[in-house]
Amino acid sequence: MTTLRPAPEPGRLLSPLRVSRAYRNLMVGQFASQTAIWVMTIAAQVLLVRRGESTLTIALLQSAVTLPFLIFTIPSGVLADLVSRRTVLIVTNIGAVCVGIALTVTCAADQLSAGLLLVLTALLGLAWAVNAPSFAAAVPDIVAPQYLPSAGMLSSITFNAARVVGPALGGFAIALLSPTLAFGLSTLGFLAFAISAMVSHVPSQLSASRRFIPALRTGFRHVANARAFRTTVFVTAAWFGCGGALFALLPVVALRELGLGAGEYGWVMAALGGGAVVGTIVLAPVRRRVPGNQYVMLIMPVFAVCLIAIGFIHHPVVLYLILPITGAAWTAVGAVLLAQSQMLLPGWVRARGLAYYFMASQGGMAAGAVLWGVVADRFSLTVALLVAGLCILPIWLVGLLGRLPEVTVIGEATGWPIGEIDIPDAHLERRAHVTVVWQVSDEVREEFLGAMRELRRSRRRTGGRGWVLTNDVEEGNIFVERWEVDSWHDHLEQHEIRQSPEDTEISDRVKGIVGPPIAIRHYFEVDVPARGVDDL
Asked: What pLDDT does 446 receive?
């Protein structure tokens, strides 16, 4: 007799690893890849310092990693919705392996110039930019929604564990042999991720869009009209912008203000990353019992206080005591924001939407680093960290006033039925036009118009463009809703999978006010012959 094992409890930290083999494989690969990035970064920095390169050249190394991310993340999100996300993960990491081999070989042959190093580092940054939306979007494809909060915490643990292990492993490899060995180890990390993606089954969630630019437009329209997700993106940008002060100014606090050496600074980063890992594990039971908004409301003030306190620290021991708490608080809020973003986005547009989340987080941190650096130069380090900590207050008030969306696990909505329409294959890529005719009595006219405001947002969120509502001149109680969609493929997907429960609720509300539409018409664009001599 076979005994069925009960499903792991959703709130437990390790539950996603237990329910999904594909998730286990990809998390191992993700940890190996992130560790490889840190090993490569340490090796590159040490190589440039040993050669006596300028401070500007060393600083450009970080820009070479992050700049491609800021430029290519949104196009990469579109790519991940157009082709298999598993394929994207495999190809990008194989590309990173090729770059790693080039770094290893040229370094061993003493042919790795500063310029070539920056170019190869930028290529790794490009691989990271393409990889990030695909990986984040693939997680909800292989992990059930109720396990996503725990998956978000595990992602944070993986990232921060790599931040601790990577520099230590890179430093050990450099001390044992040379940067060449470190570059070789980083290559193995990228290879591990490529192999983990190869052996993992990731269901395809491909968009109906076959063309890049229309898919890019559709993704932007969804983000612009998905109010809850848009709010999360704004909060993410603000949070990372304020938190960017920590990572921009911590080197100055440790190395200049406290006079620590390079080795001691490594322990500073280990305290921050280690605190993030341990804190996430310790806080997991709290996260399981407390809704996301309340959890964020508890953690944000802790981080703000720690950030302000770092600006007033005058002893290394105090810094070592505060940093683990700071890292735990920073990671806890970031994990909630990522999990919310993953849960708010439907599968058909998830990678494109998450690209905006990554732009908000990385762009916010980059902008914050510049802003707080300017404030520190203009006034003082203490003032910069104080103001950054106080700027978290408005973000906290957004959540306190209930503006931060609370995500609940909900079922899939039923499709929007469409009649039998025989469209020739040659016309499926042509732009579709839709009209919906409503009959509205004078008594419910204002209520109908108010509901149509939300329905307009729904049409745009699911891929409609050029939406307009017109009123019949001869028959004042007739309203005609018109919009267009980039292709018939997209419009069929509007009917079949793009209708979220919220969209269905809005549509039902309109029907509850005036009844079902009295007519629905579909059109496709046709080509008009070019003007001939007779038309002149």
From this structure: 93
Tokens of 467: 């939406």
Q: What is the pLDDT of residues 82-108, one digit of tens each?
A: 888 889 999 999 999 999 999 999 999
> What is the three-class DSSP state of 10?
coil
H, E, C per residue of 99-124: HHHHHHHHHHCCCCCHHHHHHHHHHH
What letter would DSSP give residue 434? E
For every residue of 222-272, which 3-state class applies, written as one string? Answer: HHHHCHHHHHHHHHHHHHHHHHHHHHHHHHHHHHHHCCCCHHHHHHHHHHH
- Which two structure tokens, joined as six digits, stand for 498? 């793009």
Assign 3-class secondary structure to 368-388: HHHHHHHHHHHCCHHHHHHHH
For the beta carbon of residue 351, count every other beta carbon within 10 angstroms. Answer: 28
DSSP bridge pairs for 348: none
Q: Are 475 and 414 in contact (CB under 8 A)?
A: no
DSSP category for residue 404 = S
Q: Tokens in use for 330? A: 């920073």
Q: Starting at the earlier edge strand, list the strands of the sheet with 519-524.
A: 465-471, 478-485, 432-439, 519-524
Q: Residue 279: which pLDDT band, with cuts at 50, 70 and 90?
A: confident
Average pLDDT of the chain is: 83
More confident position, 174 or 241: 241
Separation of alpha carbons 79 and 516, rounded Å = 38
The DSSP letter of residue 200 is: S
Place of tokens 């309109």: 510
Helix (H, G, I), strand (E, B) or coil at 203: coil
Q: Which helix (H) or strand (E) holds 90?
A: helix 85-108
More confident residue, 534 or 168: 168
- Report the chain's C-alpha Rg in angstroms: 26
Packing angle, helices 212-225 and 445-461, rounded to 10: 140
Q: Hey, what are 132's tokens? A: 């990030």
- Whether 479 has a pLDDT exceeding 90, the answer reads yes
Token pair of 428, please?
């499926």
* pLDDT tens profile 512-530: 999 999 988 888 887 777 6
Residues 6+ apart with CB under 8 A from 35: 162, 165, 166, 169, 189
Instruction: Give the number of other CB atoms < 10 A from CB of residue 297.
Output: 17
Q: DSSP class of residue 147?
A: G
Q: Rounded to an integer, what distance in angstroms lies between the CA atom of residue 495 and that of residue 488? A: 11
Of the chain, the end-to-end C-alpha distance in Å amounts to 86
In eight-state DSSP terms, residue 530 is P
Q: How far apart are CA 160 and CA 150, in angstroms?
A: 15
Tokens of 427: 């016309």
Place of tokens 């207050």: 393
From CA 245, how far away is CA 95, in angstroms rounded? 33
pLDDT exceeds 80 at position 142: yes
How far apart CA 290 and CA 155 sit, in angstroms, is: 19
What is the total residue count of the chain? 536
Contacts of residue 151, defined as CB under 8 A and 6 or more positions apart, other chains included, come to: 16, 23, 139, 143, 339, 342
